[in-house]
Write a structure and sequence with these properties.
Helix 4 (108-117) packs across helix 9. It is built from 10 helices and 10 strands. It is an alpha/beta fold. The model has no long low-confidence stretch (mean pLDDT 94). The chain has a 5-stranded parallel sheet. The protein has a 5-stranded parallel sheet with strand order 6-10-9-7-8. It is globular, with a radius of gyration of 19 Å. It has helices at residues 11-19, 43-49, 77-86, 108-117, 129-135, 164-173, 184-188, 224-234, 253-261, 273-280; strands spanning 8-9, 27-31, 56-57, 94-98, 123-126, 161-162, 177-180, 207-208, 242-245, 268-270.
Length: 299
C-alpha cells in the first residue's frame, strides 16, 4: 500500500516534484475543476489551455452515477476503479488534486473525499489550488498528458454515504450533527439556489459552516488552530459523529477536509444534499426565511 501522505500539500512541494519529473505512476496530479453553470466557464477548454505539467482532468460529471436524476452522485466501485485507472492511478499512487477556482479551491475536496471513500488514503489537496500555484509563479503548460492505464481496485466505505431516508430519520433520532457547507444566504433562504426549481433554505437542525470560510483570502487552507475554533464557534462537536451536506455534495467536502485536518476519523456525506432534499421533503421540513416550499407540491 502507498505510504501515508499529508491531506494538504503545498505548491512548493508539488513544484519540486514536477521539476524532478516525479509525476508518473507513483504520483498523479488531477485538475478537478467544476463550476456552477451561471459562471459560464468551460473547464475542458481551460484545462487544454493551461494546467499543471503532467496533470490529467478529473470530471465529476463523468465519474458519477449516470442513472441518478441528481447531478454528479457518487459512482459505483467498478466505475470509479475504471475511471481512475484510465488516469494512470493505481492503488499505490499518490494523488494530488487541485482546481482553478478563484476562491483557491471549490471541487478538489470532493475528489479528495471520493478517493478516501473508495479506500484510497494516499490523496492530497493542493493548498490554494491553481490560484496559489500561479501566485507563486510555478510553471503551467498546454501540453496534454497520456498516462498509461493502471489497475485500481476500489473498496467503498458505504457507511460514509447517507441517504435522504437516513437524514429524514435523523430529524427524529437526533443521533448525528448535520453541517451544511453552503453560503449563508442560501442556507437561510435569502439568496437563490443555483438550480432551477429549487428554492433556498436548509434541513431542520442543520448547522451552517460556509465552505469559503475554511480558506483565507489567498485561497490557502486555514491553520488547524483556526479550524478547530471555527467548529467550536459553530457548535459542532468534533468528538462526535457528524454528517455533511451542501447543494449537490461538492462543497460539503470542504467541511470533511477541515474535520480531517482536525483529527476527525471520517465525516459522512449526504450525497443528494439540498437538491434532493428540496425535491423530496415535505414543506415543514424546509426551513427558510424566504418562500420555502409550497404546500401543493408535497410528495
Amino acid at each position: 500500500m502507498a505510504a501515508q501522505v499529508e491531506a494538504v500539500v503545498g505548491a512548493q512541494w508539488l513544484a519540486e516534484a514536477v521539476r524532478n519529473k516525479l509525476v508518473g505512476p507513483s504520483l498523479r496530479v488531477l485538475d478537478a475543476s467544476w463550476y456552477l453553470p451561471q459562471l459560464k466557464r468551460n473547464v475542458r477548454e481551460e484545462f487544454a489551455q493551461r494546467h499543471i505539467p503532467g496533470a490529467s482532468f478529473f470530471d465529476i460529471d463523468e465519474c458519477c452515477d449516470t442513472s441518478s436524476p441528481f447531478d454528479h452522485m457518487l459512482p459505483a466501485e467498478r466505475d470509479f476503479s475504471e475511471y481512475v485507472g484510465n488516469l494512470g492511478i493505481g492503488n499505490d499512487t499518490h494523488v494530488v488534486v487541485y482546481d482553478c477556482s478563484d476562491l483557491g479551491s471549490f471541487a478538489a475536496p470532493r475528489v479528495w473525499w471520493m478517493f478516501r471513500l473508495f479506500g484510497h488514503r494516499s490523496v492530497s489537496v493542493l493548498d490554494g489550488g491553481m490560484k496559489n500555484w500561479l501566485c507563486e509563479r510555478h510553471p503551467v503548460t498546454d501540453l496534454p498528458s497520456a498516462p498509461e492505464r493502471a489497475r485500481f481496485t476500489a473498496h467503498k466505505n458505504a457507511a460514509w454515504v447517507k441517504t435522504y431516508e437516513d437524514v429524514l430519520q435523523n430529524l427524529t433520532d437526533r443521533k448525528f450533527q448535520l453541517v451544511d457547507g453552503r453560503v449563508e444566504g442560501c442556507f437561510r433562504g435569502l439568496e437563490p439556489e443555483p438550480r432551477e426549481d429549487t428554492e433556498p433554505g436548509h434541513i431542520p437542525g442543520s448547522i451552517n459552516m460556509p465552505f469559503p470560510s475554511f480558506m483565507d483570502s489567498s485561497g490557502l487552507q486555514r491553520p488547524v488552530e483556526e479550524l478547530m475554533a471555527m467548529f467550536q464557534d459553530a457548535g459542532v462537536d468534533l468528538q462526535k459523529p457528524f454528517w455533511i451536506t451542501c447543494s449537490s455534495g461538492v462543497t460539503a467536502c470542504h467541511i470533511a477536509l477541515a474535520a480531517h485536518l482536525c483529527g476527525h476519523p471520517g465525516v459522512c456525506l449526504y450525497d443528494g444534499s439540498w437538491s434532493e432534499w428540496f425535491a423530496r421533503a415535505a414543506p415543514e421540513h424546509i426551513i427558510s426565511e424566504g418562500k420555502g416550499k409550497p404546500r401543493e407540491t408535497k410528495q
